[in-house]
Amino acid sequence: MAALLANYIFVVCKVYSNGPALFPIQEPSYELPGDGFVPVPEHFGDSFGEAEFQQTHTILADGGDRFGVSALAFDQHEELLWMGNQGGHVTSYYGPGMQKYTSFQVHTNQEVRHIHTFDDGILALSRTSLRCQMRRGIPMFTHRFGGRIKSVERFGLLLTSRVLRADKVEVSSENMEDMQCLLQISPDTLLMGGHQEKIIVFNLTQGQETSWLDVGENGCAILRQHSRFICAGDPSGSIALRNTNTLAVEHTIEAHTGSLSDLDVHGNLLVTCGFSNRHGNLSVDRLLMVYDLRMLRAVTPIQVVVDPLLLRFLPSFSSRLAVVSTLGQTQLVDTVAPSEPSLSLYQANTAGSVCLAFDVSSSCQCLALGDAGGSIHLYASNPRTAMFNSFSRETEFADPVEPLPPISILDEHTPLASVPMPYCQPGTSLLSDWPEHLLRKVYRYAACLPKFICPQFIFITGTVLSKV
């Protein structure tokens, strides 16, 4: 055994014996890799074209030093990525370059659990409130649990090209308690669910609740829309398929025995991930449960190599699915041929933080992950030409500040009034604002006319003097 081990060590040292370079020496029994060989460090470089996605940005979000990223959403109308953290703050980033666009607070201390974008703004859902804001950051209304009603002397708020028929921007509700998810099923109707016994039907035009549905003590944690059903998943692992018109339950799917982590719907497929109850303990299911909504039955599950926590379909590819684990690992799987030999696996550097949020852009060119450490990780299929949406409208930016023309210090003809007065912040004052005890009011008297006035000056100014 010692002789075999020594021989083995000799062979290894011989193959990798060329100093610090550490590359194999060509021998008759050893074949160098072909032209398709790529060293491991180059797999993560920009020149490696085989990778479907490349990580382009990892930024620390606003408040990331104190709060984790709890919600992410790509804007469906503009080139914006929205982030909500555990401290109730919302920030938007423009384009694949992640330029900060707007940043505002939607709640004093509750985390943002869901962000939804629509034509005229965004909806941010926290545990006890629903906040509607314009993309520029101006609040439109707040619908919260047990809040005081504030009347505001203003005209109606524009919403979906109509007028919000209410003169109150903050409205109280007894049903807004421990909310978790929302879904817009029409331009006017919004569904909100949570860890309670009701699903709230909210009218965006009127800014108030119209009705509610009883869903039992398990509540509703996830809402997804299908052409035939409204898929409502509860934390216990079951999914209720509701009619899109009457919202009545037509079918129930028992997906996981422990708990439901996430689900997504695309075409006729419904895919779920969650936990199983084994010997009284919850363990992660390595199998993604797949259901055919045409026949309302389960099909062959998909096995993944990561512990699935979040998943999203890639809209541009009907059979592709992105699965994210708690450690920031992202695996791309095919629902049609799940046993294909190619493996697409990406690792985000979360520094040990748990991944809490994930979203895919409508163009299928960008992926975004948010972790508990307050960082946002952006992946792009092509960092130079990636877009969030295929046909985005232009984003409104603030007007640029026009620079003032330079004035020479020796200039005696330019009036000082051409320089606009600056806006003084509270607690500051202009240099010419002297205290009262150093000032004295005087009147400026008109200058005396000279005894002799040049006739040419009179002709130029148009003054007519009568002869005496």
TrEMBL record:
A Pfam family assignment: PAN2_N
Span of domain PAN2-PAN3 deadenylation complex catalytic subunit PAN2 N-terminal: 53-379
Record InterPro entries: PAN2-PAN3_catalytic_subunit, PAN2_N, WD40/YVTN_repeat-like_dom_sf, WD40_repeat_dom_sf
Protein name: PAN2-PAN3 deadenylation complex catalytic subunit PAN2 N-terminal domain-containing protein
